[in-house]
Amino acid sequence: MEQNNNRLAILEQKFKILEQRHQKLGCDLNLIEQEIEGIKSVDTDEKPSETSQTESGQLNKEVESSAELPANQIQQERDKVPLKTSIGSAEEFYTEFYNKRKAAKPSINWEKLIGENIINKVGIIITVVGIGIGANYVIENDLISPLTRILIGFLFSFAMAGVAFKLRTKYLNYSSVLLGGALASMYLLTYAAYDFYELIPQFTAFLVLIILTMVTVVTAIGYNKQWISVFGLVGGYAVPFLLGDETGSTAVLFSYVLFLNLGVLIVSLYKYWRLLFLSAFGFTWVIFLFWFSSVDPALRDVNLSFFFSTAFFMLFYAAFLISKVRYKNELIGIDISTLLLNTFLYFGIGYATLNVGLEKYHGAFTVLLAIVHLFVGQVIQRYELPTKTTHSFINGIFLVFITLAIPIQFTEKWITIAWSLEALLLLWMGRTKKLVVYEILSYPTIFLASLSLLYYWVWFYLERSSAATYPFINQMFLTSLVFLLAFAAILFLLKSEKERSSLQENNFVLSIVNTIVPLFLITGTYLVLFFELSRVFEFWEFNSLIIESSGYNNFNVYNPSIYLFKILAQISYSIVFLHLGFKINKKWFEVESLYRIGFFFSIVAMLFFFMAFFGAVQDLRHYYLGINDASPHNQSIANILMRYIFIGFGFLNIKTLTDLLPYQKSSIRFTGRFELFLFFTLLFILSSELIQWLDIFGFENSYKLGLSILWGLFSLALVLYGILKSNQQLRVASLALFAVTLVKLFFYDISHLSTISKTVVFMSLGILLLAISFLYNRYREKLVEKA
């Protein structure tokens, strides 16, 4: 078999080599074919040259010999055979082809680019800035009258526009830049004539601005040059920074900017110029935020802030949508960033505006913004776009703001409920409708819902919880129940084979969610029922308290046994939860990791089971016997009976461990130790029972005499069982137990025992040792055979 595999590997390598040679020989075959056709066309009957025959024979020999080469010589032989073509080797052929292709590729003429495009744009910017600086100098030194300044500025601008118009035929790019600069200067001069010098009334100023905006739009579209709109419209945004706003009205300033934005909107109807949109977007929000941050919130005009921020937001939103609908553009990263920035800037401004005495409208404002995106999503759905990404993204923003509205407007319980249901809705839409954006948005919402529930638990128990609260009939339980039901449905969708994810199976986020959701669901279910079980005993404790008086003070006296009952009930509940979890996982899910986790926590539960006998179980017995109890409450036989119910749950946990053991990676190694663990548990319970009944009947030194005799008997029984089952491990364990018993006897028991008690213990243990020795001698042959 191994020889065949080696032969197969050699043949496969030979095949690959021949295949590669065949591909390289394609060039030679084509050239030879062309040469043959050329020879036929001139009707020559010459035979193939001797050289060609030699080359052909050499090639055939190479191919035939390659089939017999050993595997370690294949690559060496391949390198020895050069590939010949009519123009030389294959390497020379490809080198020449690459050089021809490189020579055919046009190179960038940097001199032409800089001289014809970059310099004129930089020049017009410097010119406009120079005009602004010069105007500022003239203003500060009062060299000429305001009217003269404005007239000179307009004459210069008209002259620049005239030159641009004359050069439009031969120098279109240069003409467009000049015209843009001229229009930007006219914007600046109109604003200065109205706002700084009050030379024209408000109506005239707005009329001129409208005319300038229309001229800019028409010329930009007519020229089909983005730079006209950039210099003409966007250049106008620099007016507040060049001239300042110390004397002007804020409403006039924002109205001026609003008219510029209308121009941007109109241009977007005809041209998709992203640079224009981004420039106008940046200038507008910088101007608005500069004013917004410089005004005292208490003195800020709420109506002015809302009106213009809403107008700016809607204009840019409209321009964005027009570009997507009219030009069928795909949604790219810069579009996503701009839309989100536009939306959240407006939301932040509106939220801050309402933050002075109008906080109650925060939630309504957030919902209103969400409705705007919902409406836009419905409108844009009617148009045919390359993909559904834009529609899904806008609807995703709607869901984001609905999510934000929940914590803004509602209390903690409604936040948890709303986010849980929203996470389910998003995931359902993402999986059933194959909308990746919705599915991605559902994942952070799942984490938000989980964190919200955790916060609500802490808040409820630290600030709102009361012992008088009814168990299972309270806000916390109902809220948690909705959360758990929603997460159960989410888990069903995640595991459904029918509704598979649109994301890749090895997606990092998806793998985390597939792990976290069942973890949250299991942990949440356990904690919710754990809390409510605790509340049952707290409610019982509250309703059974006794009010006692001491002088002028009253104080509450609680039944101490109820708290101990609660501890035992919590441990028992944990055991039942782990057992049911194992059954459910085995029947429906078969998740291997849950078997290992369940085994670990079952061991932890067993440790708490043992510890309870030194605490709660012992204290319940003492309260029943009247030891260390000054409480006026009557203690019943339930204090004693509760231990047997608790022991029953302990055996249930042992059953769970037994069922989980085969699913562990080292189950064979654990089997022997687990058997010892079972016998230890049995000895522990028997010892506890002995101590309890000796205490009940009033025997002293029960921890000494009784335990030593019990351990000796148990050791004897364990030796006998180990012999009968041929189990050396149990026999060794029994001897170790007897050794511990003897150490306890000599170093602890005899120091406080009476002479009679010492006699009884020593005689009992001596007889037990003789019995053990007899058993070893009686079954010596059997033990030797098994050894």
Distance between the termini: 43 Å
Q: How helix-rich are the residues, as a percent range?
A: over 70%
Largest sheet: 2 strands, antiparallel
Please, how many helices? 29
Rg over C-alpha atoms, rounded to the nearest angstrom: 45 Å
Could you name the ranges where pLDDT drops below 50 across 5 or more consecutive residues?
42-91, 242-247
SS-based structural class? mainly alpha
How many domain units?
A: 6
Tally of strands: 4
Mean pLDDT across residues = 75
Shape verdict: elongated
Widest sheet: strand ordering? 1-2
Estimate what percentage of residues fall within beta strands.
under 5%
Could you characterize what this model shows?
The protein is mainly α and 787 residues long. It folds into six domains: 2-104, no CATH class; 118-252, no CATH class; 295-409, no CATH class; 412-532, no CATH class; 544-619 and 640-663, no CATH class; 666-787, no CATH class. Helix content is 78%, strand content 2%. It is built from 29 helices and four strands. It has helices spanning 2-41, 50-66, 74-80, 90-104, 110-141, 146-166, 172-195, 202-223, 226-232, 239-243, 250-268, 274-294, 302-327, 333-353, 362-380, 389-409, 412-432, 436-464, 475-495, 508-543, 560-589, 592-614, 616-625, 638-660, 667-696, 702-724, 728-749, 755-778, 780-786; strands at residues 84-85, 88-89, 546-550, 553-557. The strands form two sheets. It has a two-stranded antiparallel sheet with strand order 1-2. Strands 3-4 form a two-stranded antiparallel sheet. Helix 5 (110-141) runs parallel beside helix 7 (172-195) and helix 25 packs antiparallel against helix 26. The longest helix has 40 residues, at 2-41. Residues 42-91 and 242-247 have low confidence and may be disordered.
